[in-house]
Amino acid sequence: MSRPAPSPIYTLRGAGGPLNTLHFSCCGGDNPLLFSGSGKGAIHIWNLNTRRAEKVLEGHSGNSVIWVSTLPSTRALISQGRDMQVCLWDLCEGRGEVTDSVWGGSVGFCQCSLLETSPGTWLLAHPGQQTEEIKIIELPSKAPVCTLIPDAKLGMVMCIKLWQTDSGLGPLLLAGYEDGSLLLWDVSHRSVLSQATAHLEPVMCLTFDPKHLRGISGSSEKNLSPWMLDEQNNLQLRDPVALVNPGVSQLCIRGDRKLLASAGWDHRVRVFGWKKLRPLAVLQHHSDMVLSVAFSDHQDPRHTLLAAGSKDQRISLWSIYNEGADTS
Fold this sequence. Notes:
The protein is mainly beta. About 0% of the residues lie in helices and about 50% in strands. It contains no helices and 29 strands.
């Protein structure tokens, strides 16, 4: 008999708007943090020890914040808003100031993607002004690297993921489009390596496991679409994973590559074993659609948390499958 689904260990309130994006920073010292971006333009920095917001940043003129991340090995925060700006923040010594910004040109909901290519240097991919355009720049110089536009008309770019291969090939980028297509781009050569139709509806979200060359994407449909890359970098679709209710906002793989979490339009978070995509748990807490999910980056895996942000303006924190349970 399966165990009943757990309750959240605690809930964070006071974001003041729908929670579009979440990002943990728990590796540096004794002060684990969770960053959230809201539909009202605020970025909250939550102290997970006190379970309170230790700072609230306002940098996108009240426009919805759709993505936040941190630059590894620095005290810098990066955020993307629907004011078409990507902002860099200095958080050193309690500061919370915008030190630089990049004009993205997109009014859509496609989140940026960040990849560290060498110590102190990152690639930032962001949607461009044209519907299908993806721009890649280098940080902190902001030097343009390339612009990726497909030859065919695929509609708006919906989600992107930069990653680095172990084979010596340059950075690659996975992109999901409005017509349901997935494209794998070779950033160095500005060329498409492979393409697949993963959904009949727009690709709302995707995530990818570079170690095992496996990914999964979601849409407004009643299933998830798993896929993998073969040795020639061809996208190979796998059997879809059926959902009880349609609509997925975001997908996230835990750092140990054992769990996959999905943020559902049906107000639920679903947890799957990543290896076989076996359903493990349905987490019910929120009163409106779940918009974001994120696993923490605690150095001790026993302390790993799952956070879920909802349109109901609350963040739920969960501790699940942290003691070596069978999650295949």
